[in-house]
Amino acid sequence: MAFDIPVKRIYEPPAEADGQRVLVDRIWPRGVAKKDAALALWLKDIAPSDALRKWFGHEPERWAEFQKRYRAELDANGDAVAELRELLREGKVTLLYGAHDEKHNNAVALADYLLRHPRA
Predict the structure, then answer these.
(1) Around Cβ 67, how many Cβ atoms within 10 Å?
(2) How far out from the chain centre does Cα 62 lie?
(3) CA 30 to CA 26: how far, in whole Å?
(4) Partner residues linked to 7 by β-bridges
(5) Strand, helix or coil at 34?
(6) pLDDT score at 110
(7) Concatenated DSSP letters of 39-62
(8) Buried b (16+ CB within 10 A) or exposed e, 93-107
(9) Which PANTHER family match (predicted)?
């Protein structure tokens, strides 16, 4: 598996260096045409639950607790995690998200989870 899992806003233009581009948000980002997204996969099922997403509200002071709760959701979501791990075994994958905050979003938390649990 890759040791580096890049994370990028979907609003940034696709680049060859992205490898396979995977959107990891449950909701399609506003203003992005599907044909322009250059996605290999939209993996809605790996995104945080609606309840967790709404609770977090992208408030940085909730970041640590969000990561803890999201990791628990990921632990219980073996199929979606396995699907993403399979893509990672095939080569470079860039996780895409729509949030404004580049440090506190589900894609960052997901990349961290995958790196910390390489075979889970």
Answers:
(1) 18
(2) 18
(3) 12
(4) 95
(5) helix
(6) 98
(7) -SEE-GGGSPPHHHHHHHTT-GGG
(8) bbbbbbbeeeebbbb
(9) CYTOPLASMIC PROTEIN, CYTOPLASMIC PROTEIN-RELATED
- State the pTM of this model: 0.93
Query: Which tokens in the block code for residue 93?
Result: 């994958």
Torsion of CA 9, 10, 12, 13, to 10 degrees: 150
Q: State how far the Cα of 36 lies from the Cα of 81, in Å rounded to an integer.
A: 25
Q: 3-class DSSP state for residue 105?
A: coil
Residue with tokens 């598996």: 1
**Token code pair at residue 55:** 């609770």
The amino acid that residue 59 corresponds to is: E
pLDDT of the chain, 120 residues: tens digit per residue: 446 899 999 999 999 999 999 999 999 999 999 999 999 999 999 999 999 999 999 999 999 999 999 999 999 999 999 999 999 999 999 999 999 999 999 999 999 999 988 765
- DSSP 3-state of 96: strand
